[in-house]
Amino acid sequence: MDYALIMAGGSGTRLWPLSRQNTPKQALRLVGERSMFQHAVDRLAPDFPAERIFVVTRGEHAALLQQQAPELPVENFIVEPEGRGTAPAIGLAAIHLLRRDPQAVMVVLTADHFISETERFRRAVSAAFQVARQGQLVTLGIQPASPSTGFGYIHQGQPLGEMGGFAVFAVERFVEKPALEAARQMVASGEYSWNSGMFIWQVQRILDEFQRQMPAFYAQLCMVAETLGTPAYHNVLERVWPQVVKQTIDYGIMEGAGDVAVLPVEIGWSDVGSWESLFDLLPVDAQGNAVAGEFLGIDTHNTLVFGGSRLVATIGVEGLVIVDTGDALLVCPRAREQEVRELVGRLKESGKGQWL
Amino acid sequence: MDYALIMAGGSGTRLWPLSRQNTPKQALRLVGERSMFQHAVDRLAPDFPAERIFVVTRGEHAALLQQQAPELPVENFIVEPEGRGTAPAIGLAAIHLLRRDPQAVMVVLTADHFISETERFRRAVSAAFQVARQGQLVTLGIQPASPSTGFGYIHQGQPLGEMGGFAVFAVERFVEKPALEAARQMVASGEYSWNSGMFIWQVQRILDEFQRQMPAFYAQLCMVAETLGTPAYHNVLERVWPQVVKQTIDYGIMEGAGDVAVLPVEIGWSDVGSWESLFDLLPVDAQGNAVAGEFLGIDTHNTLVFGGSRLVATIGVEGLVIVDTGDALLVCPRAREQEVRELVGRLKESGKGQWL
What we know:
Oligomer: homodimer
Order of helices and strands of chain A: EHEHEHEEHEEEHEHHHHEEHEEEEEEH
Structural class of chain A: alpha/beta
Distance between the termini of chain A: 41 Å
Helix content of chain A: 25-40%
CATH superfamily of the largest domain in chain A: Spore Coat Polysaccharide Biosynthesis Protein SpsA, Chain A
Number of helices of chain A: 11
Strand content of chain A: 25-35%
Strand order of the largest sheet of chain A: 6-9-7-8-10
Number of domains of chain A: 2
Largest sheet of chain A: 5 strands, mixed, barrel
CATH topology of the largest domain in chain A: Spore Coat Polysaccharide Biosynthesis Protein SpsA, Chain A
Largest interface: A-B, 38 and 37 residues
Shape of chain A: globular
């Protein structure tokens, strides 16, 4: 059977002050009334019954996400004692799914990206499942919209044919986040797509890769797997997990795997990694301002105003990020928003941990 | 007997979003826990019993000011149906005081200026009362700290001697708000002081000036005076006041009066007309930031952060005004804060009257 796994373990420091320790990025209502996590569930609902939609997240966020998706069975929330990266999160989910269904095929999805072309996304996932059933590890590659240095890239190799209207390629190589010039060359070549972090594979197949490429972790995973469905599960997981190596699925598995295929897709995919990305998601007015909430600007241009019911008023402002939440406010130039992470780091040092 | 009148009728549009229709400038807690109006009352308390401290204000602000100064008798709040400028406000207060005490001498004070040197202020007022009892119209002139174009100036003429340690001069001339070059010349000459709007005179003496220089208004004032202490007072005042000419005491009376004296004083006086002036009143840190409330700044300089319990966090900000109130936020460069008034004007047009 086909299963979906939503990875919802991130924190999203760069979206402070909206994202917080207790309100991670995927739980935020950035656009409209539904959170990014809820959008991720909504996208799956037409094709997957709730019983086959799983979520992997961290303990501190599980309750909030369960509230946001009450239609999902509580037991489908797989809770990590602490985040160890995407490889362990996927491994943990895989042993749960394998126990449920030895023939399981799964799609791994993220909860912190936007996808505007839902129909096309569904068709791509459906096609990828068909490729995965043939034994491939499949990834969805995003047609690059710009030479971004914020994503990894996938180099398409030999064409493997067509599936459900999508071209399928063998993956030549995974490329880590590149420098700008390298990114430009890759985009210009037409042979690369962005690594979206969306994967489709047989559960047994990915566990075999864990056994081959991350044997120490696989052994730890087996200790946990033996306790599945028993009262010992939580204790063993709590004991094992802090010893698990931190690793991404890309670096830990995909770069060294054989039989990896990519479907380059155009599905209106947006990373929502930082405030800058909101310019792609919010309506932008004639002055170049992206606005959510009550706003009155005089001579204000190219500015993000992310507020709510409070009024944000500006005069003579150019290229700022202004984010207004219930208990904290951020003002910084767009060009420096990458320093938000540093700012969050400073909060604790300066006795302002309540705003973390 | 000596009486004090606090003029508390202003609105303070330029301190939006803190100042509002229902919360005028003088009622704001800009520095510390007491409002500017409360500071004005506090300064008088050692020298004036509450029964001899009067307040003139507008109907919409009377209740708030009464709450802020419950120690003052309610009947000492003289309420104008609408603001008509300082001349009518003072005239109205004068007829109240004259009825109470035909020998009354009064000091007219503002509620929207800060005075840091309270002791020196009290000695100056005391000295001015002595000069006023000799029949002069007395004003306190502020030693100019800069060639400000935001104040009127007073040209000192013939020295009239000394009183209580303060030099007394005949006033040669009142000068309206000057251009910058004229202001520079006046400050350089050493013969000018700022017009602070603080006056001391016998009540009968100022009413005589109203009769001579503003006879139409004086006639209206007499109609009101006849009803003092009767049930007709409010109706007559409500009927007369909208017909009263709008006029300032400076232009309507002082510029044309004889026997006007000035005491130049140094009392740590600050106008609090705009956000810029807060740089003089708040502690300024090593980066040149004037901060009230919770703040975390990275590479932030020469910026006013006026908030409260919410955290204001900034990165890479230079020379901004950031004012954070319960329901509205202002962000603008210091150099453009004079446009706050325009912004307030826009609120109504753009359907945001709730933030006025």
